[in-house]
Amino acid sequence: MSYQAYITASQPIPRTIRSWYLNGRGMDCFGQHDQPSNEELPDIGADELLTRVDAIGICASDAKMIRLGDTYPLFHGRDLVANPQRLGHELALTVVRVGAALVGQYRVGQRLGVQPDVYFRGERRAIGSMIAGGYTEYMTLDERILRGDAGSYALPVADSLSYAEVALSEPWACVEAAFRPFRRLNLLPSGLLWISGHSDDFDLDMRLPSRLVVASDISARTSEQLAQRQTPVITADGLDAALTAQRYAEGAGIDDIILFEPTARQIEAAQQALARRGTLTIAGLSSPGFAGIDIGRIHYDFSGIMGAAQPSLAAAYGEKSSRSELRSGGVALVHGAGGPMGQMHIQRALSLEHPPRVIIATNRGLGRLRALEARFAPLAAQRGVEFRAISPREDPELLEATVEALGGCDDILMIFPSPPETQRMPDLLRTGGVLNLFAGVPPGQQIRLDIDRILRDGVQIIGSSGSSLADQARVLKQTAAGKLDSASIVSAVGGLGAVKSALAAVNARRFAGKIVIYPALGDMPLTPVSNWSKAAEAALLRKWLGE
After folding, report:
1. Cβ-count burial of 384 within 10 angstroms (0-12 exposed, 13-18 middle, 19+ buried)?
2. Do 449 and 480 share a domain, yes or no?
3. For the chain, how long is the longest CA-to-CA vector?
C-alpha cells in the first residue's frame, strides 16, 4: 500500500482486521495478551457503510470505561465477558464500501467525522460504549448512526482537513458544548410540575405549560393563582417528592419542582425525584442552610437548580438568569488545566472575541504547570489577558488568596471534578458566578452546598456531557476556515498496536496533550510529537506507507 493509494481509498481491503476489545474490568481485560485480536472484516447490508478508520483520539473516558468495567454508567451492568465492547469514539473515517440502498448518498473515498452521542428511536446508543467503536482498522456504520433521531451522525468533512483534525473535532465539540445550556431554562411544555410549601410571599407570574400541576401544602393565594390558569391542577397535601413521583410521574421522575421555603432535607429529596433534564426551583426568603447536592445528576442528567429570593418566580427562569458562556472581562478559573481538555478550554477562552480579563490555571504537578505558562502566557498577553498558573499541591493557600484578591471568580471550570475539590469551589465564586462541571463525575457523588449561594448570590452549578451534531459541525467549520488550530493539542501518535500503551499513558498523565492513533501505521510505538500539523501527519504516513 502506498500513501497515494491510501488517501484515494484505492488500496486493497483486507479480509481480516485487528481490533481491541474490553472483556471485563481493568487493563488486564483489555485486548488479548496486550495485543489486538484478529477478526473477519465485517460484511455490510444495503443500508450500511464500511469505513476505514484513519485516526482515533484517545479519550480519558475510554480509560475510565476500562477501569470501571460493567459499572460504567453507559454499560448498564453489561456482561463484558460474554459481550465484549470495542471502545473508541473520537474518529476520522473514510468510506470504502457503500451499501446498495446508500449509493448516491455516500461514495467510496468520502471522508467522514462522527458524532458519537447517537440517539436512535428515542434511546441513547453511544459509539464506543453501546455501539462498537473505532479501536479497529475498519468499522461498519449502520442505520443507528446513519438514520438516527437527529439524522445522520456521520459528518462529511473537507479533504483539506487532516485526519487528526477530524478525529479531534469530537473532543473540541465537547469543549464548545460546555458553554451552551444542557439544562432546561424554563418549565417543560406538557411536563409534570410539582409545587410545594409555604408560598405566601411569591407570585406564579410565568407561563405554566405543564400538562399537570400537583400542588402540596401551598397558600390560598397560590391556589387562587393556579385556579386562574388553564393547566389541570391536583391538590394533594402531605405529599413529598418521592410520593409525588411515584403517583404522577409514570416512572420517569418529576419534570419541574418548585419548593417554597424548603428545608435542606426537602431540597435533597426533590433533586433525587427529578426527571432527566428536570429543574428544581428553590424559592425562599429564609435560609435552609446546607444541603447535599448530587453533582453526578447535574453532570449526567443535566438537572438544573435555580433560586428565587424575590416575589417574582418568573425572574428565576430564562437565559437572562441562567448564564452558560464565560463572562466577558471576568475572572475564569480552569481547575485541573494541565491535561488536554484543560488546555483546550484555555485556548478556547483566549480565542473568544471578548475573553475573560484574568485566567487562572491550576495543576498539581509543576512540570505541566510550567508547560501551561510557556504555551499560554504569550498568547494571553497578546489578547490583553492576565494569565496565572498555580499549583495547589505546592502552595495550598495560594489559589484562595489569589481569588480573594481578585474579588472572586465569575467562572470555574472543573476539568476532572472530584467531590473534595468540587466542595471547595462554591466559596471561590462571586455573586452570579458559575461552577461548570465538565468531565465525568461518579454517579451519586454529593457536595454540601450553602443554599444561600443559590438563593441570594445567584450562583449556578451546571454540567455537560458529550456534544451534539451542531457542536461538532461548528468545530469542523471553524477548523476548515483556519479559525481553530485543533491539531496543535496533539502530544503523541502511534499505530493501532499502541492503543493499550496510549491508554496507560493517559492514566499515568504522561502527555499533556492528546494522543492520536493512526491504524494504518500498524505497530508503530507511541511516539511524542510537537507542533503537530497536516504536513507532519502526511510526512509520517508517507514514511510508513511509501509514496
Report:
1. exposed
2. no
3. 82
Q: What is the pLDDT of residues 343-364, one digit of tens each?
A: 999 999 998 999 999 999 999 9
Residue 246 belongs to domain spanning: 192-320
CA 110/CA 124 separation, integer angstroms: 26
Question: What average pLDDT does the structure give for the chain?
Answer: 95
Which sign, positive or negative, has the C-alpha torsion 109, 113, 118, 119? Answer: negative
Q: How far apart are CA 368 and CA 376, in angstroms?
A: 12
* Cell numbers representing residue 460 in the block: 449556578
Residue 414 CB partners (closer than 8 Å, separation 6+) = 335, 336, 421, 422, 425, 435, 436, 437, 438, 439
Domain assignment present for 371 = yes
Side-chain-facing half-sphere of 259: CA atoms under 13 Å: 29
Residues 436, 526 share a domain: no
- C-alpha dist (Å) from residue 321 to 184, 305, 485: 12, 12, 33
Neighbouring residues of 159: CB distance < 8 A, sequence distance ≥ 6: 111
Cα–Cα distance measured from residue 90 to residue 17, given in angstroms and rounded to the nearest whole number: 19
H or E segment and range at residue 307: strand 304-308
Is the pTM value of this prediction over 0.90?
A: no
**Structural domain contains residue 186:** no
pLDDT digits (tens, 9 = 90+) for 76-89: 789 999 999 999 99
Residue 389 burial (CB count, 10 A)? 21
Domain of 213: which CATH number?
Answer: 3.90.180.10
